[in-house]
Amino acid sequence: RAFRRQRHGIQRGVDVDLPPANAQPMPADDDVSVLSITKDQKVFLGEAEIPFEELETKIRLNQKLQSEKELYLHADRNLPYGIVVDVMATLKNAGIENLGMVTDPLADTDD
Question: Global pTM?
Answer without folding.
Answer: 0.72
